[in-house]
Input
Amino acid sequence: MTGAESFGLTDADLAVKPTVYAPGMFDGKVALVSGGAGGIGRATAWLLARLGAHVIISGRSEAKIAGLIGAMRETGLACSGHAVDIREPEGVAAFFDRIWDEHGQLDLLVNSAGGQFPQAAIDFSVKGWNAVINTNLNGTWFMMQAAARKWRDAGQPGSIVNVVVVTTHGLHGVAHTVAARAGVIGLSRSVAVEWAPLGIRVNCVAPGAIETDGWKVYTPQVRAAYPMTNPMMRAGDAWDIAEASVYLGGPAGKFITGELLTVDGGGQLWGETWTTGKPDYFKGADSRGADRPDGD
Ligand SMILES: CCCCCCCCC/C=C/C(=O)SCCNC(=O)CCNC(=O)[C@H](O)C(C)(C)COP(=O)(O)OP(=O)(O)OC[C@H]1O[C@@H](n2cnc3c(N)ncnc32)[C@H](O)[C@@H]1OP(=O)(O)O
Ligand SMILES: NC(=O)C1=CN([C@@H]2O[C@H](COP(=O)(O)OP(=O)(O)OC[C@H]3O[C@@H](n4cnc5c(N)ncnc54)[C@H](OP(=O)(O)O)[C@@H]3O)[C@@H](O)[C@H]2O)C=CC1
Output
């Protein structure tokens, strides 16, 4: 942790953090990272650029994108960026037109844009539900489809990595995002088959608790529980997800498609999943069943 207001790896960290990958691995390649100025996206952008790619960074906030581009260019890395809301299909399509106008190619799309707010599902408003589904399922789909259409039309191969969430457990307070991410995982498996003849690979990475600024939407108590969500008893960092995405999305993953790689320190094997706070009902054995309708 880097301070009260900021979580996870800084640009200074990301500029020098050792990587398992070979320098020049992405020379001549162009990569797009949505949510690229967020925590996981930022690490992915730094890694891909350090490996030789020209990295295009997108997100909603121009200021965040500009800050990252400044930091990366200062170290001599090739990058550019555009503010694009992934929930706007026309804007997404225009963005991909622009990428082809400027670069004539795209080799890798990493969809890291996403997020949710913690709330008990029974209290979700229609607007809140739609905000999370539109962001994480529809927005990711608009990006995937726009990229695939460009690759098909240009006769070029391509690769997509979708950053999702672990969906194997019942996670309290995030049912909307789990629904959306399960949709993305199923969608990715389906189009991995449909798009294989086009030379397009589609994979997903499911992070466990990864310390980033995205954690700011959770309370200190919830954040304190994150390291206990896996048997390693610690949070991961954004570099763990960046290196996983590069593995699946780059040449090391050339025979992998439709796959889901979980990077959670073994969290999906672990018992404790109440990351957003435990409902009162579950807090003690004494209260078990005391006031719960049993359906009889
Ligand atoms: C087993 C292994 C374990 C593994 C352990 C797993 C750990 C999981 C930890 C996961 C961590 C992360 O993903 S962290 C990284 C992700 N980053 C984030 O989540 C931050 C970004 N989040 C967001 O931007 C928002 O939540 C999101 C909805 C997605 C964005 O959409 P918008 O910008 O359109 O949202 P807003 O305009 O703010 O809100 C739209 C509506 O959503 C609802 N809404 C928004 N915030 C709300 C809130 N706090 N409480 C209630 N309702 C809310 C309201 O209805 C809002 O409308 P009004 O009523 O009109 O306002
Ligand atoms: N950190 C963690 O513990 C975990 C994270 N994840 C998932 O990984 C992904 C990345 O998370 P992380 O980097 O930690 O979170 P951040 O909040 O740091 O980054 C997410 C980025 O997504 C962008 N974004 C959100 N909505 C939109 C939109 N509609 N259009 C374009 N960009 C958008 C935001 O950019 P801007 O502010 O400019 O809009 C933000 O920078 C998310 O999907 C997250 O839910 C999954 C499991 C655990």
The chain has one domain: 16-287.
